[in-house]
Amino acid sequence: MRPLNGFRVLDLTRFLSGPYCTMVLSELGADVIKIEQPGTGDDSRRMAPKINGESYPFAMPNRSKRSVAIDLKSDRGRELFLELAASADLVIENFRPGVARRLGIDYDAVRKVRDNILYCSISGFGQTGPYRDRPGFDIMAQGIGGFMRMTGHPDGKPTKVGIAINDIAAGATAIYSILAAELHRRQTGAGQYMDISLVDAGLAWTVWESGAYFGNGEAPAPTGTRHRRSTPYQAYRTADGYVTIGANTDRLWLRLINDVLKRPDWADDPRFVDLPARMANIDELEREIESITTTLPTSAWVERMDAAGVPGGPVLTYEEALADPHVLARGMIVELEHPVIGPMRTIAPPTRFSDIDYSVRSPAPWLGQHTVSVLTELGIDRDELERLLAEGILYDAHPELQEQVQ
């Protein structure tokens, strides 16, 4: 049993923030119908690598959904969308502000066919404010939110976080906002409009940084792998790589110096005697620790820290992380059979529920894979479907494969 069984979503989103949100909703049970432009579809479909013409990156956040390709700029396409919306629970879009209204599929238009609809808009800067009309992707949000000035190493160039963190933050914000709106609707019967911005969602995650700034005006600067408020808490060089050490309490500090680094004298060293002293001498502490950690390989230090109960671990490449025995034991890699790509792998949903099915349901659809089946469910007759397909108002990229996937 999935908790969102029976919850229907019309997904107008592209790239990552919205598709990430709807992927999660789908794997919690929602029927997510991805509405795409005929011929081109979601912009991320053009991303390499491609196998048999299908984008592997697109397939990651768009699994477990159905694809319906409709030309929303046509009158009949817009009518069909609104007919679908009449039985939907959620419409989610990430157009630039104003585009949904110009297409005639904005919140006010959808409310006329479903008065208690949930409607979520994700954009770079939100629906209000002086920057509302600016196009905004993840890197713009990282730039304007200060992330690129607090990431990387001191005196280095502004650095982007290694993943599209503002996109994922916006997607995660949309998930809990939608679930809250649905709970509110079940209690009151009222629909809801949600305005989510990549910038706002990222800023909401700056918890320690905002505390330091509002508390004493401290602006977060790049610290490499160091923690802003505690040490030792970073990656240190070893004989063959790097090891992370998280001895960020007095108890863990004593375990580290006594049982791991074998430097019990540091307990009374005025440079390191307490956390304020260690923070004041953080450069010297790093040099002292690395003079020791570089004498042995990473695995030896991990073994020592595990034995001593000190948090620590290797600094892996992404390739090494995906092959790590713990990651594999947790079932974080799922194998699928895509009708075009063939055998493929994806990252599994991360939560392990005691009694809820939360798993990958199906591979990502090809463009327009479910156009005919979904609109047939809506009651559109076969003759009209064939005419609309011929006119390009509807689209199916691989009609020749339909019998194979039924």
Descriptive overview:
It comes from Mycolicibacterium agri (Mycobacterium agri). InterPro entries: CoA-transferase_III_domain (IPR050483), CoA-Trfase_fam_III (IPR003673), CoA-Trfase_III_dom3_sf (IPR044855), CoA-Trfase_III_dom_1_sf (IPR023606). GO terms for molecular function: CoA-transferase activity. Keywords: Transferase. This is CoA transferase. By secondary structure, the protein is an alpha/beta fold. It folds into two domains: 8-204 and 329-405, Rossmann fold; 233-315, formyl-coa transferase, domain 3 (2-Layer Sandwich), CATH 3.30.1540.10. Helices cover 38% and strands 15% of the residues. It is built from 18 helices and 14 strands. The chain has helices spanning 17-27, 56-59, 75-85, 99-103, 107-111, 138-144, 165-188, 198-203, 207-216, 250-260, 275-280, 282-293, 298-308, 318-322, 325-329, 371-377, 382-391, 402-405; strands at residues 8-11, 31-36, 50-51, 54-55, 66-70, 90-93, 118-123, 192-197, 233-237, 242-246, 312-314, 333-338, 342-347, 394-395. The strands form four sheets. It has a seven-stranded mixed β-sheet, with helices on both faces. Strands 9-10-11 form a three-stranded antiparallel β-sheet, covered by helices on one side. Helix 1 crosses helix 7. It is elongated. The two termini are 23 Å apart.
Task: Detail the topology: elements first, then pairings.
Layout lengths: L7 E4 L5 H11 L3 E6 L13 E2 L2 E2 H4 L6 E5 L4 H11 L4 E4 L5 H5 L3 H5 L6 E6 L14 H7 L20 H24 L3 E6 H6 L3 H10 L16 E5 L4 E5 L3 H11 L14 H6 L1 H12 L4 H11 L3 E3 L3 H5 L2 H5 L3 E6 L3 E6 L23 H7 L4 H10 L2 E2 L6 H4 L1
Parallel strand pairs: 1-2, 1-6, 2-5, 6-7, 7-8
Antiparallel strand pairs: 3-4, 5-14, 9-10, 10-11, 12-13
Helix pairs in contact: 1-7, 10-13
Organism: Mycolicibacterium agri
Protein name: CoA transferase
Keywords: Transferase
